[in-house]
Amino acid sequence: MEDLKNIIESLLFVAEEPLSIDRIKKLLNTVDTADVRTALGALTEEYDTRAGGFYLREVAGGYQLRTRPTYNEWVKKLLQPKPPRLSKAALETLAIVAYKQPIIRSDVEHLRGVDCGGVLRVLLERNLIRVLGRKEIPGRPLIYGTTKRFLEVFDLKDLTDLPTPKEIEELIATEPDTVQAPDAKIGPDGSPVTESSQTQQDSTVLETDPTAEDMVPAGTDELPF
Description:
three-stranded antiparallel sheet; Arc Repressor Mutant, subunit A; single chain; alpha+beta; 225 residues
C-alpha cells in the first residue's frame, strides 16, 4: 500500500488510546504484520532523529504519540489538567491486584487487613481494574485484574514490565530518605503485604488533601499527544 507510513501516522494522531498492530491491520485491511511493523519502526526512527515535541511510544499493547517530558510544563499550561488522585489505600490495593491477579476481594482484604469494597469500586470506575469473571467457589466472588488503561497510565508495555522484587529492593536502597513503615513488607512475588492492625473501613478513597498521591507515578511526565 502506498503511503502506508503516512496513513498509520494519521491514525496514531487522531487515536484516543494506543493502537495495536492488529487494530491497525483491521483498519487497513490489505496489509500484513511485517509491513505495519516496518512502518512503525520508520516513524519511531524519524521522531527520534527529529527530537521534536512528540515521539512514538509502545505502551499498553499498542503504539501512541506522546509529548516529550521536556515540554510537559508548556503542555500543562495549555491543557491545565487536573489529574485524578488516589489515596494511599487505593494505590496499595491497585498494586496488590497488579501483582496477584487474577485475585478476588477476600484475598485483597486478607493482604491489606481492611475492607476494600469501596477502594475496588473506585478503581473500577477509574478503569484501572476490571472484572475477569467469577471464581467457582461458594459465593462465586468476582475476580479482578488490571486493564489496558492501567498499563497506559503507568507507561508499561505489558505486565512483564512491572518492577521485580529485586528492582524494588534496589530502588529502596538508593533512596536513603525513604522511610518504610514497620508493617510494610514486599512479598516474594513483589506484591505489597501489609499486616496492619487497622480495623476501620477504607471508606474515603479519594483524597481532597492537595498532598495526596497522583495516580500517575512521580517521574512519568509524558502525556498522550
